[in-house]
Structure formats: structure tokens, C-alpha cells
Amino acid sequence: MENWQVKRILILGTTYPSYSRKYAETVCTGGILEDSYEMVRLHPIPHRYLEPEHQFKAFQFIKAKITKNLSDPRPESYRIEPNSIELQDEIPYKKYNVRREYLEKSPHFCSSVEELIDRQAKFGISLGIVKPKKIIDCKIELRPEDKRVEWEEKEKSILSQKDLFEYNFKPIDFPEAQFFVFWECDDKRCTGHKMNLHQWGIHELYRKYKNNLKRDQKVLDAMWNKLDQSNRDVFLFLGNFRDIQYNFGLMDSYSPEKKRQLGLFG
């Protein structure tokens, strides 16, 4: 018997949507429980199909009915009742320290990817927040054509399910590019990491510049600006994959202004 609970959750971000035979589409949504600072993975959320009063933003609290996802072995995975979502207060953009506090107080905050992998092996943890020692590079790579064919075949399969027409079916553009971030952790075991950034926003930016000859450079500039460690503290949000749980991917990031050091007189 499912045990539904009403929780207040701080939304951290969402990945680019993917097709779902059951829900038309869904996005991977990450958040932090207000009462425990624990990270959670929320599913299913067909974000574009939600009524406006249910559509949330990053660093906004929602109140919703959730229950452990018994079909997913990852402990942080919860099912959510989309129609139960109540939009609540947002932590304003300039409230860097308030936003940062939720990340640094979370039991999922790790000193390195290596620590996160250790904790996954020992405790099964599947979500983590990591502050990289150094961002090394950002690159854009086009996805191979066979992935486009696979995407379009799934779209046709979804459309063949007549009962989904009640959703007023909205096609999802094939994600043409992958956005890689390279970094090092402050861990002697670290040999460097390269992960594909799955954040919805970066895909939307790439689409925005579709007809711009300098599209790649504009998107890379935006990535570097967000990950600029000269004036920002970078937090990376990582999650593992259901079928390969020792393998983590880069779901999203947050980059507040660096903490200001007080002088001798405050």
C-alpha cells in the first residue's frame, strides 16, 4: 500500500524532457526536502502539460503529495502527484547565501565525485552535490544521426497510442547537441571528469540560437560565464542512472557569487 505524504520541496532544476509512453513526456526533476535537506528525484512530471498553477521554477518551493517509487531501486526516487503541486515562495536570485545554505547543509553535499561514488557503493546514494576544484573546459558535440532516428521512432510509437491524444500531444525537439563539462575535484584520487550537462535551460538556449552562425560560441560563452570560478562558487548536481548505478551524470548546476570575505572591521 502506497504511503503518500505532503512535503515542501525546494526545486533545484529539471533536465531536458524525454518521451514517456505512459505520461506523453516527463522530465527528471531534482529537489531538496525542506524538513531534512535531503535530495529527492521526482517523477512523473510532464512539465509542459501542467496547468500554469502547477509549473514551478528553480529555487521555488512547492508543496505536493509524494511517495517512494517502489519500482525504482534508488532511495531518493519518489513518485509525485502532479495535480497536487502547489506553488509556494521562491528564494530570490540575489539571496545567494540562503540558496547556498540548502546545498551545503544537505546530507548529499560531497567533497568530490570520488566521495559520492564511495557513498553510492556503501549506502546506495544516487544524488549528490559537488563543488569542483577546477572547471577545465566546456565543449559542444553533435549527437549522432542514429540517435535522431531512435528519437523519431519513439515519437511515432507515442503517437500511435490514441489515448494520449487527450494530452494535446506536443512534440519534443530532438536534442541535437550534447554539452560537456570537464572538471577536477579536490581529491587526490581524481583524474578528471567529463560529463554531459542534461539541464533543460542549456538545450533551450541552443534552440534559441538555431539560425545564428555563431550559435556554438554563444552557448559556450554562456556556459563559461555560469561556470566562471573567478567570481562564482560552482555547485554541480549529479544523479546516477537507474540501470548503471555506479555511473553518474551531470543534471544541473548552480553558481552563486563567491562569498565575500569580511575585512578586519566587518
User: What is the molecular shape?
Assistant: globular
Please state the structural category.
alpha+beta
Count of spatially separate domains: 2
Output the strand order for the largest sheet: 1-4-5-7-6
Distance between the termini: 56 Å
Topology:
Blueprint: E1 5-14, E2 18-20, E3 24-26, E4 29-33, E5 39-43, E6 60-68, E7 77-80, E8 86-90, H1 96-105, E9 109-110, H2 113-123, E10 127-130, E11 134-142, H3 145-159, E12 177-184, E13 193-196, H4 200-208, H5 215-226, E14 235-241, E15 244-254
Parallel strand pairs: 5-7, 9-10
Antiparallel strand pairs: 1-4, 1-6, 2-3, 4-5, 6-7, 6-8, 10-14, 11-12, 12-13, 14-15
Summarize this structure briefly.
By secondary structure, the chain is α+β, with helices and mostly antiparallel strands. The chain contains five helices and 15 strands.
